[in-house]
Amino acid sequence: MRIGILADGRSPITRGWLTALLDLEYEVHLLSTFPTQVDLPLASHHLAPVAFSGIRASKAGSESPALGGAAAIQLRAAARRWLGMATFPRSIRRLRSLLQHLDIDVLHALRIPYEGMLAAEAKPGMPLAISVWGNDFTLHARSAPWMGWLTRRAIRRVDGLHADCHRDVRIAKEWGLAPDLPTLVAPGSGGLDRNLFWAGEPTLHGLSPEIQSALQALSSDTPVVINPRGFRAYVRNDTFFQAIPHILREIPATVFLAPAMMGERTAEQWVARLGIEASVYLLPRLQPEDMAMLYRRSQVMVSPSEHDGTPNTFLEAIACGCFPVVGGLESLREWVQDGVNGFLIDPGSPEALANAVVKSLRDLQLRQQADGLNQSLIDNRAERGQVGKALDAFYQALARKGPHRAHPEGGSP
Questions:
Q1: What is the mean pLDDT of residues 313-332?
Q2: Count of CB atoms situated within 10 Å of the CB of 155
Q3: What's the pLDDT at 74?
Q4: How confident is the model at residue 82 (pLDDT cuts 50, 70, 90)?
Q5: DSSP E strand boundaries for 148-229
Q6: Is 348:236 a contact under the CB 8 Å cutoff?
Q7: Distance (Å, rounded) from C-alpha 375 to C-alpha 381?
Q8: 90: Cβ–Cβ under 8 A, 6 or more apart, which residues?
């Protein structure tokens, strides 16, 4: 199979997907919407910018500390929504030109805004697959009238859909996905590498110096809570920080790890305002190997998110033995049975988050029971080898079916 991947090439999710396809011995062509270098044996690598992506050089998901964390993310997202549409005609022409020179069986855009929208407008002469990220429908599609219009056009023009939760397949049908098209529900990163994400005792060997320093300061019985989400507009980090004093009143020795928050002014302000400097480690953005070790050292992972599918950080954390305390979203209910293998909480309530964390830390039996269930979930539904088989079947079905005619346009839901 020859697959073209239209995606943000800087993203760890994209890297994971590319690796999964290479493991299948596919011929893989990357059309990256952002400038990037990829150290993978790809057949080709091209730049296909859209909505000003070609002029941005920061890492995927990273935000400049000088621009104020979550507020800066929202400002940039709004600017792209309002001004980015002006770049579409040129982006469509460039993508069509690239596709004319590539001999591929399937083009796959790894999210709806803006890669899926761009691919749908270019509508290549080969089958088109689109992935849905966890907030494509629930947040982005409803953020502006034209975002909803372009989302619907993309869903009506697609030949196959991948989502990381069943909820988004259901919503896609409400937005116009034809019922007879191939669909796939699988982790957005192409599955977890169990040689990296496994449950067991942490070790300092091979870790970066800043992570070694953080872990060496902790005794073996220190309770550790990790928030791996960084700053995103839909993650309630205000809830996370405000919950910490409540947790410390009950379990004073607790330590909180916050990767990708070092240098974030908003995080620093919360820590100073609440007087929790001694208990919170604001860490830099980390490589997967370091993240896996931090998960293994933590007892609890928190994700107070208001919009999500199945976050890769959630899967990575439970694969490494963390007990999850996450927003009570429909998508996460596909994985978490409240009070059995995790807790589902109101992401806007610091008290609810604190109470769930305290209960998790105090109940070793609950955590051990949850870990057994979660390891089985990962092995059966998220392990890269298992996901690879489903990916292969999905692409083969797309190639056999071929491109279909777009359905009539309709209004936004």
A1: 98
A2: 27
A3: 60
A4: low
A5: 160-163, 183-185, 224-226
A6: yes
A7: 10
A8: none
Q: Is residue 275 left, alpha or beta, with left meaning phi > 0 and alpha meaning psi from -120 to 50?
A: left
The tens digit of pLDDT for each residue in 24-57 reads 999 999 999 999 999 999 999 999 999 878 664 4
The owner of tokens 């997907």 is 17
- Residue ranges of alpha helices (H) inside 338-383 are 350-362, 364-381
Take residue 268 and report the two structure tokens written for it: 């620093």
**Distance separating alpha carbons of residues 79 and 373, to the nearest angstrom:** 43
Tokens representing 83 are 């001004």
* Spatial separation of the C-alpha atoms in residues 400 and 293, rounded to whole Å: 42
Question: What radius of gyration, in Å, describes the C-alpha atoms of the chain?
Answer: 21
Residue 375 to residues 212, 250, 254, 294, Cα–Cα distance (Å): 26, 29, 25, 17
Strands 280-282 and 106-109: unpaired
Query: Is pLDDT at 254 greater than 70 in this prediction?
Result: yes
| Euclidean distance between CA atoms 213 and 233, whole angstroms | 30
State the Cα angle at 33 between 27 and 36, rounded to 5°. Answer: 75
Tell me how far apart the alpha carbons of residues 386 and 361 are, in angstroms, rounded to a whole number. Answer: 32
Residues 192-213 pLDDT 10s: 999 999 999 887 777 777 778 7
In terms of DSSP bridges, do strands 323-327 and 343-345 run parallel, antiparallel, or are they unpaired?
Answer: parallel
Q: What is the pTM assigned to this prediction?
A: 0.91
DSSP SS3 for 336 = coil
Residue 256 has pLDDT above 70, yes or no: yes
Q: Please name the amino acid found at residue 248.
A: L
Handedness of CA 367, 373, 379, 382 (dihedral sign): negative
